[in-house]
Write a structure and sequence with these properties.
Length: 111
């Protein structure tokens, strides 16, 4: 079991050259990263590419804009953001409330 309360809370400014800051609790091994991420109001995770991994982000609370490979969508509680291997994405929280995500970043095999 992974209990986020037992993991170190990180505050990361301008994550992937985004705006503002996020906070993150992260479990990490050689195959997967499992995170609870809060994107503070008015903040973003900057544009970045997933190389040799994919990301699935479930929205626990809040509203934001997700752009995956140029496709822009509004996301909210209950939605899932999927960023496949080799795709680029950004998440922008332009709302007046924090956005909370449960994320799994899994390594992929490329043959």
């Amino acid at each position: 079991m992974i209990d986020f309360k037992n993991l170190k809370k990180e505050k990361i400014e301008k994550f992937n050259n985004g705006e503002g800051y996020i906070t993150r609790y992260m479990y990490n091994d050689e195959l997967v990263k499992i995170c609870k991420i809060t994107i503070k109001k008015g903040s973003s995770i900057g544009l970045h590419q997933h190389i040799s991994n994919l990301e699935v982000a479930y929205v626990l609370s809040g509203v934001a804009t997700s752009i995956v490979d140029g496709v822009k969508e509004k996301v909210e509680k209950g939605n899932v953001i999927y960023c496949p291997n080799k795709a680029c994405h950004i998440i922008e929280n332009n709302s007046d409330k924090n956005l909370v995500l449960f994320c799994v970043i899994a390594e992929t095999k490329t043959n």
